[in-house]
Amino acid sequence: MSDVRSLPVPDGLEGERLDAAISRLFGFSRTRAAELIVAGDVLVDGSSAGKSDRVRAGAWLEVTLPPPPTTPMPVAEPVPGMKILHEDDDIVVVDKPIGVAAHPTVGWTGPTVLGGLLGAGHRVSTSGAAERQGIVHRLDANTTGVMVVAKSESAYSALKRAFKERTVDKRYHALVQGHPDPLRGTVDAPIDRHPSGDGRFAVVAGGKPSVTHYDTVEAFRAASLLDIKLETGRTHQIRVHMAALRHPCVGDMLYGADPTLAARLGVSRQWLHAVSLSFEHPGTGEWVTFTSDYPADLAAALDRARDES
Length: 309
Known about the structure:
Layout: E1 3-8, H1 18-26, H2 30-38, E2 42-44, E3 47-48, E4 60-65, E5 83-87, E6 91-96, H3 113-119, E7 144-150, H4 153-164, E8 169-177, E9 184-188, E10 191-193, E11 201-203, E12 211-219, E13 223-230, H5 237-244, H6 259-265, E14 272-280, E15 287-291, H7 296-307
Parallel strand pairs: 7-14
Antiparallel strand pairs: 1-4, 2-3, 2-4, 5-6, 6-7, 8-13, 8-14, 9-12, 10-11, 12-13, 14-15
């Protein structure tokens, strides 16, 4: 069901283009605002207007917002290449391959960890929203490595709390462009959605607190292998923080990586891998650690970086 919002143009938007005013008022991208205007879903003082028309303070806006898209439910089917590293009554730990999302989201039509587990007959916790039951943390679709999913309700609660309270040790390896200076450091910079509204995230004043620790493991001619520990778990956190340092992950075109270097090393996605995950087992209370080896594409790229150095 559509949602109609009515409001006056604030004094601060006097003289702005209509698409810019709608973007500011509702948090849309300019492109999305223009689409609504062209579709006739924006009225100014009861009449349709052009996206480039200038608005005046006090003019009455009526904006018909489309219904929010519905999140699809997981498709229960086995995911080729997804290995089970550990399973017991409380948790299942997987080695997530490339091209697999943690759970269904709007716009994602590919395989998911949750669907893969259900399709292979694994039980997962029923806690959480229906489309992401048992999911206590996520990896980007093209980030590989260790991921834990809760099977029991008590494990779901305990692990969600552990991730929130930052008592989980999350370790990643990233091959980044160039050589960070200093070789070891911490990025403490807030992250939120990029103002462009194009799906990227960025370091933004007033964003969510985000802390990334990094240490150089090995330096090559054009890149560096970093060991990274996350304190927080924001979407795209490592990718955003490395790009903010001007050392984006090799192959991460979304965040400004050099396509020439990526091609030379044979990388077709961001070189980023969740190498280990340590936490207090929600059933036994024991501190447990699970690790994952580099997948073939990342290992091959690393060998090329060494060969050319």
